[in-house]
Amino acid sequence: MAKKGRVFSGARPTGRQHLGNYLGAIQNYVDLQKEYDCVYCIVDVHALTTVETTQELQQNTFEMALDWLAAGIRPDESILFVQSHVPEVMELHTYLSMVTPLGKLTDLPTFKEKIRQQPENVNYGLLGYPVLMTADIVLYKTDIVPVGIDQAPHIEFARETVRSFNYRFGTKALIEPDVKHTEVKKVVGIDGKDKMSKSLNNHIELALTAEETTKRVREMVTDPARMRKTDPGNPDICNVFTMHKIFSEKEEVDMINTECRKAGIGCVDCKLRFAGNLNKHLEPFRAKRADFASRPAEVQEILVDGGKRARAIAQDVMKEVRAAMKLP
Ligand code: TRP
Questions:
Q1: C-alpha to C-alpha distance for 243 and 3, rounded to whole angstroms
Q2: Which residue ranges have their beta carbon within 6 Å of ligand 1?
Q3: pTM of the model
Q4: What is the number of structural domains in the chain?
Q5: Is residue 301 part of a domain?
Q6: Which of 2, 111, 274, 279 has the CA that lies 20 to 30 A from 155?
Q7: pLDDT tens digit string along 184-195?
């Protein structure tokens, strides 16, 4: 079947993925494979903007690849690769930097946020982050980029950079990408408050065992006004209920919705039901993950092969880019 165009997305190697990554990004990556020719990249070079050492980079890359593969990224059909395996992206980053006004980079809200977060390490790579991201996208003649809403300024930046480059060098070599926002609503962590994230340690890793998952679910904060089991609860503000809506059958969701409001079901029971449904949902994922994890050399081979296929596309695009710039 002819596909509709090319999708590209990237994510920094954060190691084992959590429920927020799964619902916000990975599930979409998997679904998009039906209709698009997909390229998914683990951006290890981007990761270097925020870490001082490269110690855990390999392991984090590997763990993330395991999760993506187990979730259903099909490496025979899509390209799954590691950013640094295609060095052309660094070359393109340099060329794109020549059509990038400095003020545009310093004005980006994402850059300002980073300087606030790590004032002790405001490196040049942080400033150039969106330029490298643009290079990622245009190096594969990408039509669509599925990303969270926080990345919107970067995609707009990429579009403007493509226009500047094509105009300056009188070419159509680069394609302006369209964005497809994936995170429709934020996945809240077990604190019931902030977006689920590893750095806040409010996350539930996909690769936990069923027991570990249940333990974590039991720590979830529910309606804070409900002190005792005999108090009525409010599912509308309860994150466990939000999760039930995603992972439980409609009948059970309706039952909880009614019973919670009249203290007919307690939070512990409600959480155990959610944990059970989540564990059931993740069972095939866990089996697949364990299988891939038992064959690490094959997983590395998948990434190397993905890198080769990505590089072949990149090299053709770079020929066009250099020709447009009158470079040898
Ligand atoms: N900036 C993205 C993030 O922080 C990661 C990323 C790098 C990316 N290159 C990309 C996303 C290209 C989409 C396309 O999440």
A1: 33
A2: 8-12, 43, 46, 133, 136-137, 145, 147, 151, 154
A3: 0.95
A4: 2
A5: yes
A6: 2
A7: 678 999 999 999
